[in-house]
Every structure is written in structure tokens, then in C-alpha cells.
């Protein structure tokens, strides 16, 4: 009995270190260390990030010094240049959008050097409806002897709700805001002709 007990203790003692050794080695191979690292959050899905569009009529803006339509009366013409965007998926499923805009102010025949305010609007739209809108007024200086000046704007953290992240639009425009698209005109229903022809028609 005593010999059997010693044998049993020897088996238990031998089996213990082997189990510890297995965990030790597997941790090194899997995690590069002896301990298991804390669990990490699942990797977020890559965000949908559409190209930046321009609002209807928002690509350029003219300031006139006389009658409209006369090119000689143009004081300044503001226009958009390069557009860029960056989209980041957030933990709650929404998307944070950063938009960069470059443009210029060009002096016209009736213009003179000076400082000019450029109104700019950046919008996020979903199903043709504005979800988020930001308006800016940035200043551009055209120095004496120069014909144009340049501006750049960066707008951050434009949030797209999680339910709208698969199909939204980013738009930029010069002016006070995004112009709504005109709804198609409703056509008047044509009265249906009677089965027997026009009323009162001679037989």
C-alpha cells in the first residue's frame, strides 16, 4: 500500500508540471508572452466614403458692380477647386466625415484688390434630405498687383447616423446653403372618354 501511494503521488507530481509547461509554451507561441492579453474589440467595418459633390449652382459665385449679365461689370468671381474627404467608422456604427475644400477669388474687370468674404456650405445628405449642414465665411485677400487670391477650409466631425451610413452624399457649395431640387410638376389627370363616345354626339 505504501509503495502504491508513492507511485500515485509520483504520477500526480509528474503530470502537474507538464500541464503548466503546455500552457506556458502555448501562450508564448500565441501571444508572444507568458500571459494571455485582454480581449480586444472586434475590428470595425470599413466606412462607406463617397466622393465630394458640388451643390446645384454652388460651383461659382459672382459679385457684380453693375447690371447683371454684363461681363464688364463683374467685380469678383469665386470658384471651388480641389475637394477631399476622409471618413472614419465610430464604435456606435456612425461615420465621422472630414471635408477639405480649396478655391480661389478672381478679380473681374470692375474689381479692385482688397479683402473678400467667401460664403461656403458643407452638407451631408441622405435620400435628398439634409442630415448635417455647416456654414463658413472665410476671408481672402487679393494684394495690389495680384489678380487672384486663394482659400482653404477643413471641416471635421460631420456625423452620419448609423442607419444612413450605406448610402449618403457629401456636397459642398458656395453661397448660403444647399439648394433644394425642384420637385417635378404634377400633371393634370386627363379625363377618361366615355364608352359611348362624347356626350351629345349625333348618332
Topology summary:
Layout: H1 2-31, E1 52-54, E2 60-64, E3 74-89, E4 95-107, E5 114-126, E6 129-142, E7 148-160, E8 169-174
Parallel strand pairs: 1-8
Antiparallel strand pairs: 2-3, 3-4, 4-7, 5-6, 5-8
What does this entry look like structurally?
Residues 177-203 are annotated as: Disordered. The protein has one helix at residues 2-31, and strands at residues 52-54, 60-64, 74-89, 95-107, 114-126, 129-142, 148-160, 169-174. It has 203 residues and is mainly beta. The protein folds into 2 domains: 8-39; 52-174, Immunoglobulin-like (Sandwich). The longest helix has 30 residues, at 2-31.
Task: Based on the model shown, name its key terms.
disordered C terminus; four-stranded antiparallel beta sheet; mainly beta; Immunoglobulin-like; 203 residues; 2 domains; 1 helix; four-stranded mixed beta sheet; 41% strand
Helix content: 10-25%
Number of strands: 8
Instruction: Give the spatial strand order of the biggest sheet.
Output: 1-8-5-6
Strand content: 35-45%
Tell me the major beta sheet: 4 strands, mixed
Distance between the termini: 128 Å
The total number of structural domains is: 2
Q: What is the helix tally?
A: 1
Assembly of the depicted chains: single chain
Helix/strand structural class: mainly beta
**Radius of gyration from CA coordinates:** 35 Å
Q: What would the average pLDDT be, to the nearest integer? A: 78
Low-confidence stretches: 11-22, 178-203
Query: In CATH terms, what is the fold-level topology of the largest domain?
Result: Immunoglobulin-like
Amino acid at each position: 500500500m505504501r509503495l502504491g501511494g508513492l507511485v500515485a503521488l509520483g504520477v500526480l507530481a509528474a503530470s502537474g508540471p507538464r500541464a503548466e509547461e503546455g500552457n506556458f509554451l502555448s501562450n508564448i507561441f500565441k501571444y508572444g508572452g507568458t500571459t494571455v492579453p485582454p480581449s480586444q474589440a472586434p475590428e470595425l467595418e470599413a466606412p462607406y466614403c463617397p466622393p465630394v459633390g458640388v451643390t446645384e449652382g454652388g460651383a461659382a459665385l459672382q459679385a457684380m458692380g453693375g447690371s447683371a449679365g454684363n461681363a464688364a461689370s463683374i467685380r469678383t468671381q469665386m470658384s471651388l477647386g480641389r475637394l477631399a474627404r476622409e471618413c472614419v467608422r465610430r464604435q456606435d456604427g456612425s461615420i465621422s466625415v472630414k471635408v477639405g475644400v480649396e478655391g480661389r477669388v478672381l478679380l473681374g474687370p470692375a474689381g479692385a484688390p482688397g479683402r473678400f468674404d467667401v460664403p461656403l456650405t458643407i452638407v451631408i445628405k441622405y435620400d435628398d434630405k439634409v442630415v448635417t449642414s455647416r456654414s463658413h465665411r472665410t476671408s481672402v485677400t487679393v494684394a495690389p498687383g495680384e489678380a487672384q487670391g486663394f482659400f482653404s477650409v477643413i471641416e471635421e466631425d460631420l456625423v452620419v447616423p448609423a442607419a444612413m451610413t450605406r448610402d449618403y452624399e457629401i456636397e459642398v457649395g458656395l453661397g448660403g446653403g444647399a439648394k433644394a431640387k425642384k420637385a417635378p410638376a404634377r400633371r393634370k389627370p386627363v379625363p377618361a372618354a366615355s364608352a359611348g363616345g362624347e356626350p351629345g354626339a349625333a348618332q
